[in-house]
Amino acid sequence: MPEIEDTASSSTATDSSEISSEITLFGKYEIGKLLGCGAFAKVYHARNVRTGQSVAIKAVSKQKVVKGGFMAQVKREIAIMRRLHHPNIVKLIEVLATKTKIYFVMEFAKGGELFTRIARGRFSEDLSRRYFQQLISAVGFCHSRGVFHRDLKPENLLLDENWNLKVSDFGLSAVTDQVRPDGLLHTLCGTPAYVAPEILAKKGYDGAKVDVWSCGIVLYVLHAGYLPFNDPNLMVMYRRIYKGEFRFPKWTSPDLRRFLGRLLDPNPETRITLDEIINDPWFKKGYKEIKFNSEDFEMKEENQSNKCLNAFDIISFSSGFDLSNLFNEADFWVRRDRFISGEKPERILGRIEEVGRTEDVKVRKRKERGIRLEGQSSNFVIAVDIHQLTEKLVVVEVRRREMNVGSSGEIWKDKLRPKLSDLIYKAEAGQVSDNL
């Protein structure tokens, strides 16, 4: 199985000349030195001209992406990064584009790659535990949002100015809607020394269990200073991975030996799970769990007013004329539904709140012309906003953000919306349709 990772393809001088005409990108970011480059992307240090904030800008060549058939992968990476807001994950600030390039504007990790620090020597057990705890916190957050990284390794783990870990590079990540009917992922990907045995078997794999294996490899490298499975002969290395054959350094404590043995269990069925990791005595020492709620991934609120919608607004709301994808095509996990009502906004919102409570849905936030609902396990968010269409009619817009695909769709379509049917405007012949 070939290694799937970016490789340098041009010199620094060539890279600099490519972007020389855009030294100040969109008049907003002042481009600095080249930080790294790959097959179709280059990463630069940049500075926000207005705020002075340092950022990293990943410039992706549209031509190379299209020729290589990676456009879907790039869109997926953007969508994934936009849903992940966690202190141990590199934040995507915004995405810009020209005719030839796509620019990912990201949080700048001043400390560089974790790999660079490990290359200077192994870490103490306590420091290894600290970074592993931060890694697991980030990976657990990804999994709770239906994202599997699939290429966790020290080169993709960055450090900020306070030497805290930041997970980066979601280019090979998968989301739950890529899972096949057998409940497994099937794409062969990853870096050889970090790849899980079940990927080598080519029979499908669980994305969460694969990430746990890679986390185990990272912990071993932090603690030992070298890889558990490594051989110049790739097939020999793959056989060792498949059998789980590795040795512990002599300085490994008994508790860490036991813990690593569970992480690097070649059988995915008996391998330790994320929940078990968090409750393990070795892991729990000094661990502070990070709590999150729906505000960390909630849709941006739009300013509402009592004015009637104009012609452009009405066309934009109409089925077949939804223009949102032109501006927000990466936000594929947001589903929309709309209907017209002749009822007052207060009555509509009151009914939605009442019905939501009977279905065990939490009311997150209530405002004059909108309401936010979320599942008890925070697996979905439903945002309802009401827009004035005419003096007597309103448009009720429902947006659903799903962390587990299908969850909010079922709640809204099967349970909430049917109980609002008497509020939906029934048009007479020649009048506007009741459902946009």
Automatic annotation (TrEMBL):
Sequence positions that bind ATP: 58
GO function term, MF aspect, one: protein serine/threonine kinase activity
Any Gene Ontology biological process: signal transduction
Required co-factors: Mn(2+)
Keyword tags: ATP-binding, Kinase, Manganese, Nucleotide-binding, Serine/threonine-protein kinase, Transferase
Family: Belongs to the protein kinase superfamily. CAMK Ser/Thr protein kinase family. SNF1 subfamily.
Gene3D superfamilies listed in its UniProt record: Kinase associated domain 1, KA1, Phosphorylase Kinase, domain 1, Transferase(Phosphotransferase) domain 1
Occurrences of domain NAF (ranges): 304-328
SUPFAM superfamilies: Protein kinase-like (PK-like) (SSF56112)
The EC number(s) this enzyme carries: 2.7.11.1
Catalysed reactions listed for this entry: L-threonyl-[protein] + ATP = O-phospho-L-threonyl-[protein] + ADP + H(+); L-seryl-[protein] + ATP = O-phospho-L-seryl-[protein] + ADP + H(+)
SMART domains the UniProt entry points to: S_TKc
Identification of the protein by name: non-specific serine/threonine protein kinase
Organism expressing this protein natively: Theobroma cacao
Residue intervals of the Protein kinase domain: 29-283
PROSITE patterns in alphabetical order: NAF, PROTEIN_KINASE_ATP, PROTEIN_KINASE_DOM, PROTEIN_KINASE_ST
